[in-house]
Specification:
Strand order of the largest sheet: 6-5-4-7
Order of helices and strands: EEEHHEHEHEHHEHHHHH
Number of domains: 2
Number of strands: 7
CATH class of the largest domain: Alpha Beta
Helix content: 40-55%
Shape: globular
CATH topology of the largest domain: Rossmann fold
Largest sheet: 4 strands, parallel
Strand content: 5-15%
Length: 212
C-alpha cells in the first residue's frame, strides 16, 4: 500500500489502550500494546545502547516510541529520536495526546521521498548514521514507500546519499557488503524475484557494493 492518507479506526485493546487499525491491520497488539513495546525494546536493546541517534520507520500509535524513549533516557544523557510516518492523521492524533514529549521526539511526515531529501536538517541527521529500527506493522502497510526511502539515490548529491543510504539499509538488515553480495547472488540463482524483499535486497547490494 502506498496511500499515505489511508484512514484508520481506533479500537480498544483488552487492557484498555487504544490501537489504530488500517485496512484490517492492527498497528499494535490488540491485547497489550505496552507489553509488546517492552518486548520490542528488549529485542533491540544492544542497538539502542550503542547509538545515541535513532531513526524509527513507522509511528503506529507510539507505544514502541514511548518504550524507546524511556530506555534511552536511562542509558544516555543526550539522544536524538526521529520517526518517519506516512500517515498524517495518525501523526496529528498522536501529537495531540503526547504533547509533553514533543521536544524529545521529532516526527517527520513522509509524504514523498524526493521531498524528504530536500530537507537539509533531515539529511544532516542521516549523516550521523543513526540506529535504524522499523515498526513492523507500519512497515508492512507502507512497505513500498519505506523501501523507496531506503534505496533512494539523488543524482544531484549521489555520493552523499549513496553512502548514507547504504549505512541505513545495512543497519536495518544487519548486513555488511560481503553478506549483501552473497544474498544478491543467491537471488540471481533463483532466476526470479520472490516478492518486494528480493527487489530491495538487490537494490541494496547495488548501492552497497558499487560507486565507492
Amino acid at each position: 500500500m502506498d496511500d499515505t492518507t489511508s484512514s484508520y479506526v481506533m479500537e480498544e485493546a483488552r487492557n484498555g489502550a487504544l490501537v489504530p487499525k488500517i485496512d484490517g491491520t492492527y498497528l499494535h497488539s490488540i491485547y497489550n500494546p505496552q507489553k509488546e513495546a517492552e518486548q520490542y525494546v528488549e529485542k533491540n536493546e544492544n542497538q539502542l545502547k550503542r547509538k545515541q541517534t535513532y531513526l524509527i520507520l513507522g509511528l503506529g500509535f507510539g507505544y514502541h516510541i514511548d518504550a524507546i524513549l524511556e530506555f534511552v533516557k536511562k542509558n544516555h544523557t543526550e539522544f536524538n529520536i526521529v520517526v518517519l510516518e506516512p500517515n498524517k492523521e495518525i501523526i496529528s492524533e498522536y501529537v495531540a495526546q503526547k504533547v509533553s514529549q514533543s521536544s524529545e521526539i521529532k516526527i517527520v511526515y513522509l509524504d514523498t521521498v524526493e521531498k524528504l531529501y530536500t530537507d537539509k536538517n533531515f539529511v544532516d541527521f542521516l549523516r550521523t548514521k543513526p540506529c535504524v529500527l522499523k515498526h513492523d506493522q507500519s512497515y508492512t502497510i507502507y512497505n513500498e514507500l519505506f523501501n523507496k526511502f531506503l534505496t533512494f539515490k539523488s543524482s544531484d548529491s549521489e555520493e552523499v546519499f549513496e553512502s548514507t543510504i547504504s549505512d541505513l539499509t545495512r543497519s536495518l538488515f544487519n548486513l555488511n557488503n560481503k553478506q549483501s553480495y552473497e544474498s544478491a547472488e543467491s537471488i540471481k540463482k533463483q532466476k526470479r524475484m520472490n516478492g518486494r524483499e528480493d527487489f530491495l535486497m538487490m537494490a541494496f547490494s547495488h548501492i552497497a557494493n558499487t560507486g565507492k
